[in-house]
Amino acid sequence: MKTTALPTPAANTRVLTFFLVFIALLCFTAADGFAKQAEPQARLTATSERAFVGERIIVAVEISGRRIENVQRPELQPVEGLRIISATPTRTSAFDFRDGQQISTVGFRFTIEAVREGEHTIPAVRLIMNGRTYTTNPLTIEVLGRDQLHQEDVDDNIFVRLEVSNERPFRGEQVQAKVVLYFHQDISVISYQPSSTWRTEGFWLERLTEEEGPRAQNVTVRGQPFRRAELMSYSLFPTRSGEVSIGGYNVTVNMRPVSRFGDASRFVESFGRSQRSVRLRTQTVDLQVRPLPQPQPEGFSGAVGQFTVSRAVPETEIRIGEPLNIETTFTGQGNISLVDHPGFSLPEGFDVFQPRENLSINKTTEGVRGTKSFTDVLVARETGRFEVPAATVSWFDPRTRRYRSQPLTAVPVRVLYDPGAETSVAGVHQLNVNLWTGSVTWYTQTSPGILLRNILILIFLLLPVGLLMYAWTEKRKQDEALLTPENIRASKALTTATALLRQADAFAENDAPKEAYKTLNKAVSDYAVHKLKLPEGSYPDSQILAALNSRLTGKHMIYNRLRWIFTRNSEMTFGTDTSLKSYQYDRAECEAILNELEELFD
After folding, report:
1. Which residues of 256-290 are buried (b: 16+ CB within 10 A; e: fewer)?
2. CA 112, CA 87: separation in Å to the nearest integer?
3. What is the pLDDT of residue 149?
4. Whose CA is closest to 171, among 120, 251, 242?
5. 545 in Cβ contact with 178 (< 8 Å)
6. Is 414 within 8 Å of 317 (Cβ atoms)?
7. Residues in contact with 2: Cβ distance below 8 Å, sequence separation at least 6, in sequence order
8. DSSP letter assigned to residue 268
9. Per-block average pLDDT, block size 10, for the chain (602 residues)?
10. Cα 321 to the chain's mean position, in Å?
11. How many Å apart are CA 452 and CA 457, to the nearest integer?
12. Residues 6+ apart with CB under 8 A from 520
């Protein structure tokens, strides 16, 4: 019979020891991995590690961890060949869940412009959080020359088109133009950069705001499966008749081959090592713009579209010296920004002042619509009964190809006498005279020589005093002229605008894009109002541009930039899809415009 030897106590001890060591190593490894996972991680990334000369990219400095707080704003070291557009980055924050734990991420985004070819390395960036320093990785950016931008074998696989809603519009009619990207299903679009300039002479241009980013749809082109994405939408209003051309629109696209398991419904994919950049350009589109029918009816002020017009007189009983406001409002869809004052006949017996304009527009993918009001301000000079005459306002409806009219009824007005306007003087000044009684004897002794000598002495004594008083009076008049509220506001215009730019930066850091762009627009508009010495108040952008037009005669470049920045700020303030992706660029443009205007005004 075979017997089995039992383990000795020493053998049992060795097995137990091995098991405990194994458990200890396992716990140590798990704890080390958990500690590394919990330790905040800093990194330096870019929207693209390849760029062309003149192209801008976003460089992000981020730190992630379970608890991220009190992160100080980092600084990028200057790199030769790359230019930092703005030293103040945009702050972002986000969080997600990993292994059942919430991971927070705080980032700082810098806008970088490539200025010289070659490989340029951004040094590691230091981030300070709660007194501790974290260091990111360095980042190398490859900058290519424009001559290295090739499109071989991509013209048939990826291209952009400019698609317009009407190729034979009437002058002033709204034409929707869409920049559409077509790309083969084997291509993944990583990002795109639209052109900052577009030749649209002969058109009034409005950028439309989309509710969400571009989404790709499956279509068939030349029998091949493609995806179609609308990148940008614009409303164009032709300002002259005849053949008018819309220039090509440039778009730089970063792309790479799509993975087998890629989601075909997504437009922007993740980064890939095989990415490349191509510069695409739409075709030139020629429009045959038809002139408006003649003759034009009474009360036509250039409105083309679908409108309703109303009149309102808030106060029909006023006193002498009080203003009478006549409000005429256009509401509808069309060239609302280009509508002029109707030019009504106004009653006699009033002083007429410059009409006020107020514009409110909404730019969506359906087009431009909004409200524009004109307020005629009259001040009564005499009492009596007056009447705001009846009028007719007309506009052209391109859908029906005919003019439409809206009658405005007459409004009676009564001007009353103002008793407070008369200044009365009441009261009798009485002099209490005490009579002298008794006998009075007068002695008069005059000498012609002494009298003449005394007069000359008096003149010589009073002449310097008189000259000093005259000089002091003139100096005081000059000081009072320089110290008027208008001159004071004009002298401090740039300082006030700079303070508003800092406020905009604060809104941007707190992730409030609408407030940031609203403050940018206020900085530029308030500067113009102060420099032009206009009365304090809120003015529409169109009125400020009209006032600046006379001061900027021959300065078409700065005027067009002003018009663009007003449009841009308005889009970002009132748009539904607002972000801070281009804030640093727009902020730098506002600051550059203010500095150039300061030189022109001086």
Report:
1. bebeeeeeeeebebeeeeebebbbbebeebebebb
2. 10
3. 44
4. 242
5. no
6. yes
7. none
8. B
9. 51 62 59 57 84 79 86 89 83 71 84 88 91 91 64 64 93 94 86 80 86 80 85 92 91 74 44 66 92 92 94 90 90 92 84 86 88 91 90 94 93 82 38 42 49 70 78 68 68 88 88 86 88 77 79 69 80 66 81 85 73
10. 39
11. 9
12. 500, 501, 504, 565, 569, 586, 587, 590
H or E stretch covering 491: helix 485-491
- 141: nearest Cα among 66, 199, 82, 92: 82
3-state secondary structure of 9: helix
pLDDT of the residue at 537: 67
Quote the tokens at residue 52. Answer: 């062309």
Burial class (CB in 10 A: 0-12, 13-18, 19+), 122: buried
The vertex-520 CA angle with 516 and 524, nearest 5°, equals: 170
Side chain identity at 118, as an amino acid letter?
A: G
User: pLDDT value at position 370?
Assistant: 93
Provide the angle, in degrees to the nearest 10, between the axes of the packed helices 583-601 and 493-509. 180
Nearest to 561 by CA among 513, 531, 504, 600: 600
Task: With CA atoms as reference, report the closest residue to 42 among 119, 120, 114, 138.
Answer: 138
SS3 state at 257: strand
What pLDDT, on a 0 to 100 scale, did the predictor assign at position 14?
A: 64
- Joined together, the tokens standing for residue 337 give 């920004």
Question: Is the peptide bond between 314 and the residue preceding it cis, with omega within 30 degrees of 0?
Answer: no
pLDDT tens digits, residue range 485-513?
777 778 888 888 998 999 988 888 888 88
* CA 172/CA 335 separation, integer angstroms: 6
DSSP 318-339: EETT-EEEEEEEEEEEE-GGGP
Instruction: Give the distance, in angstroms, between the CA of residue 202 and the centroid of all CA atoms in the same chain.
Output: 23
Distance CA 25, CA 17 (A): 12
Give the pLDDT score at 386.
92
Structure tokens at 204: 């009034």
